[in-house]
Amino acid sequence: MPSEREIRRRIRSVRNIQQVTKAMQTVAASRMRRSQQAVLASRPYEERLRTILNELAPYTEPESHPLLARRETKRAAIVLITTDRGLVGALNTNIIRLAIRHAQSLPGVTFVAVGRKAIGQLRRFHQTTAAEFSGFSERPTIADTSIVARVAMEEFVTGRVDEVFLAYTRFVNTLRQVPTLRRILPLVPEDEDLDALPRLQYIFEPDPETVLEAVLPRLIELTVYQAALDNAASEQSARMVAMRNATDNASELLDDLTLAANKARQGRITKEMLEIASGAEALGKG
Amino acid sequence: MPLHLEVITPERPVYEDDVDMVVAPASEGYVGILPHHAPFFTTLGPGEFKVKKGGVEEVLAVFGGFMDVRADRVVVLTDAAEHAEEIDAGRAQEARAKAQQALAAGPLSAADEQRARAALQRALIRLRVTEGRRRRR
After folding, report:
1. What CA–CA distances, in Å, run from A157 to A34, A68, A131, A153?
2. Quick one: pLDDT at residue A253?
3. Selection from A153, A188, A166, A160 nearest residue A118 by Cα
4. What is the pLDDT of residue A200?
5. Would you say residue A178 has pLDDT above 90?
6. Of A20, A224, B20, B96, which has fewest CB within 10 angstroms of its CB?
7. Which of B10, B12, B38 sits opposite A222 (nearest CB)?
């Protein structure tokens, strides 16, 4: 049984920790609101762009643009998006595990690491990386993520890889973030059943090739941007929840410790009373 | 039949409404779009994007992207779009002066010159958009 003083000391230290986690929870909650808004505000753009790709599908043959080229997969690239900082529960562990497991099912893999946690873990697992990026996980801008997308497209277009996957944590809501892995290259229109669509006779300006050249890379850039925003919203949500759990655990621990301290105090007082009583008794006899 | 217009940037939707006509800075020059237009797809340059609705004209500054036109709707996906009232004319003037100075100061590397020219163009578009707003008042 630890002494009363030891318990009091622990209570003080748990209370300090609780103050810290409480502060981090508040910070994460306000950032969470901002990054959740950002991810929701950017969704219409990506959805529209995807619709447009499907509309352009009748004009896209696999050979009409390098980003559409389908090849047998000898090597693939995985763009792995994680956070820069920790204290986000199992968020990074889950997505890294998903990516590495997928990598094992492929004949050969090059990673593009985004976020300090991805960089560190991929080094630890001795994985080859084509490029490493960090410093924008909490607030990605399109300029940051476009560089990532361009590296991925470069790997694909030069033929160093035949497929590109994107692994990130998709934001659903504050309590739910889903590790997600999907193929982004080669670009394949979602609707394979093209004959069912009414075929519009589009006029292209300046010409279909130039339009494809403008739209396709943009779509990849946007997909990566959207994933980074999703990841940022997931990061803040997971951190908020992790910190709230830590604060709650600290409260529980404080209750237990306070109880233990009171018991110890009660024990000490009882012991003192006994000593006084037996002392008085001894005096009375003498 | 009205024309349903959406202007969307990666950061946010900027404009959505039923309008009578739009004039857009397409790759081959400004194009006017009225309802019942044939399906049309074009890349956009930076420029003034005009929206006419009930005799009132509103001007946005848009910077690159594309426009998808159908008979009853227009979707503009652009890298950046700004309403006239969002533009800080003072800052645009500063940007214009800075770019002009950089270009006048003499030989620049190709990349720097391109950057300065792009900055100048953006500043000029912003200024034109804000001036148009002042004229109408």
Report:
1. 36, 10, 16, 6
2. 95
3. A166
4. 64
5. yes
6. A20
7. B10
Question: Is it true that domain B3-85 has CATH number 3.40.50.2000?
Answer: no
Judge whether residue A275 has pLDDT over 80.
yes
* Low pLDDT (below 70) residues in chain B: 132-137
For range A79-98, the mean pLDDT: 93
CB pair distance less than 8 Å for A45 and B10: yes
The whole-number pLDDT of residue A286 equals 61
> Is A229 within the bounds of a domain?
yes
Q: Give, in order, the Cα–Cα distances in Å from A185 to each of A68, A167, B86, B124.
A: 7, 13, 37, 38
pTM over 0.90: no
CB contact under 8 A, B43 and A214: yes
Domain ranges of chain B: 3-85, 88-136
Give how far A45 is from chain B: nearest CA, Å: 6
A168 in Cβ contact with A226 (< 8 Å): no
Long-range CB contacts for residues B31-37, cutoff 8 Å, separation at least 24: B31/A205, B33/B3, B33/B69, B33/B74, B34/B3, B35/B1, B35/B2, B35/B3, B35/B71, B35/B72, B36/B1, B36/B71, B36/B72, B37/B69, B37/B70, B37/B71
Angle between helices A208-285 and A4-56 in degrees, nearest 10: 170
B residues 18-57 lying closer than 8 A (beta carbon) to A = 26-28, 31, 38-43
Are A203 and B66 inside 8 Å of each other by CB?
no
> In total, how many domains does chain A have?
1
What is the predicted pLDDT for the residue at B22?
A: 94
User: Which range marks the domain in which residue A62 is found?
Assistant: 22-241
Q: Does B8 reach chain A within 8 Å, measured CB to CB? A: yes
What would the pLDDT profile of A18-39 be if each residue is shown by its tens digit? Answer: 999 999 999 999 999 999 999 9
Residues A206, A210, A67: CA angle, nearest 5 degrees: 160
Q: What is residue A197's predicted lDDT score, i.e. its pLDDT?
A: 52
